[in-house]
Amino acid sequence: MRVPIIAGNWKMHKTVAESVDFVKKVKDQLPPAKQLETALAGPTLSLVSMKEAAAGSPLKIAAENCYYKNEGAYTGETSPYALYQAGIHHVILGHSERRKYFHETDEIVNKKIKAALADHLCPIVCCDDTMGRRTAGKKVHWVVNQILYDAKGLSSDEIRHVTIAYEPSWAIGTGQSADPNEAEEGCYLIRQTIAYMYGNDVADDVRILYGGSVTTSNINDLMSSQDIDGVLVGGASLDPETFLKLVNH
C-alpha cells in the first residue's frame, strides 16, 4: 500500500527565520504520517533549523538538491552524506529548473540518485514534459526515456526507495496545470516504464507524484487519480494556510 505524499518545494525563497516560522505554524496541524506523508524542501541554509523546528511532528524536511560526491573540492555543492547526518529524509533531484538553468543531464541525475540512495536519502526524481513535444502530437510518451536513463543501473530494491515526480515544465509556475487526465496519463506511463524495467510488483511499490501549478482547486482531482500518489507543490507551498489546505484536502 503506497502512502501518499504531499511535498512543498520552496525553491530560492524564505530566510532561515521565515522558514522556521512557517514550520512552527503548520507542524501541529498535519495529518498522521500513516495517512499522508508531508514534506517541505527549503533552501540548504535553512534545513537544520527547519528540522529542529519540526521535531515531534509528522513533517519531514527535504533538500532541493545535492551533489553526487560526499566530499571534495566541489565549491558550493551540498554533500548527500552531510544531509543525512543532519537528519534530512528526502532530496529533490533532476528538477526541470536544474536541468534548464544548470545544465544537468540524465547522466548527472543518475549519479545523484545513486549517491543519495547510498547515503540513505530518499530521492524525489523529477521528469519533464514540454509543450513543444505535446503540441507536436507526441504527448508525454517521451518522458519514458528520461526514466530509463535516470534509473539506469538501479536495483529493484533501490528503485523502491525512489519517488518519481512527473513535472511538465510548461505547467511549473505558470498557473497552467495539466488537467487530471493529462497528469494521470503521465504518471501511468511512468509506472508502466518501471514495470517494464523491474516488473509489476516493483512498479506497484513506487510512489509517483504530479507537480506543476498544483492549487487548492485541483488537489482533490489529482489526489483521487489511480496512479498519482501525491503532489510536488511549488508556489502554493509558500503560504502556510494554503499548504495546510492542500495537505488537509
Automatic annotation (TrEMBL):
Recorded superkingdom: Bacteria
EC supergroup of this enzyme: isomerase
Gene3D superfamilies named in the record: Aldolase class I
Keyword Cytoplasm assigned: yes
Residues annotated for substrate binding in this entry: 9-11, 173, 213, 234-235
Keywords (A to Z) from UniProt: Cytoplasm, Gluconeogenesis, Glycolysis, Isomerase
Active site: 95, 167
Assembly notes: Homodimer.
Its job: Involved in the gluconeogenesis. Catalyzes stereospecifically the conversion of dihydroxyacetone phosphate (DHAP) to D-glyceraldehyde-3-phosphate (G3P).
Protein name: Triosephosphate isomerase
Gene name of this polypeptide: tpiA
